[in-house]
Amino acid sequence: MKESPLPRTGGRVLVVESDPVLGKSVSDALQRNHYDPVWYRSGREAVQASADGAFDVAIIDLNLEGDIGLDVVLGVREQSESMGVILITPVEASRERRDALAAGADDFLIKPLSIRELIIRLEMLEIRAAKRPQSIVEAGPLRVDFDRRKAYHDGELLALTPTEFRILEILVRYRDRVVTRRLLCEFLWSPEWEGMTNVIEVHMNRLRNKIGRQEARELICTVRGQGYVLRTRPPSSNGHSESRLTRVGTHGSS
Prior knowledge:
- Helix content is 37%, strand content 20%.
- By secondary structure, it is α/β, with parallel strands linked by helices.
- The chain folds into two domains: 12-129, 3-Layer(aba) Sandwich (Rossmann fold); 136-252, Winged helix-like DNA-binding domain superfamily/Winged helix DNA-binding domain (Arc Repressor Mutant, subunit A, Orthogonal Bundle), CATH 1.10.10.10.
- The model is unreliable at 1-9 and 237-254 (pLDDT under 50).
């Protein structure tokens, strides 16, 4: 779980995890990413702590020792309707995930946990919860109007399909950061979508062609074994080095 932190400023996070190793790992990673985590091993204590409304997000392991994870989700949601709730679940707990999502959870991650993906999910919750989200974002030569669902490249309107626009949307939202293929699939279709096909690659290639293949070669990069990154600045010395990035079109697969 040793992954490089993403530069940002986060809110106060309630961590509910009975596993001491995982709880410490999540809390330490959140601190490195500029969040303010408060870790509880007891679900009951966590629900009581959430009553003061001081938390922005709760991260709850459904497989708690001595507590029923679903009860904790219900308790936290009763205390605050605005608090974001992210679940940590084992892969086999599909029924429990559905029940918890129906009870008010916003999102979930499957073990083994990826800290980078957790940070991205936290940011997605912040975007959804923002009262006045930024409707127009510029990223390099791209300008994206999220309200009107239009995208421009060097001032020219791109004729994108709804799926292509959503791919561009998440890449622009998290520009200069790796977005995993699995996260793209879940963002585009559903949290339960775990297909392993070339659907993402097909849509990505069409998007790159519409931007312009030569321009896209420098703009959208493939990260081997992980996903994609939309670059608006050169790699930093403590971030992803060029040796870890595969440029668009290199090796013919992306």
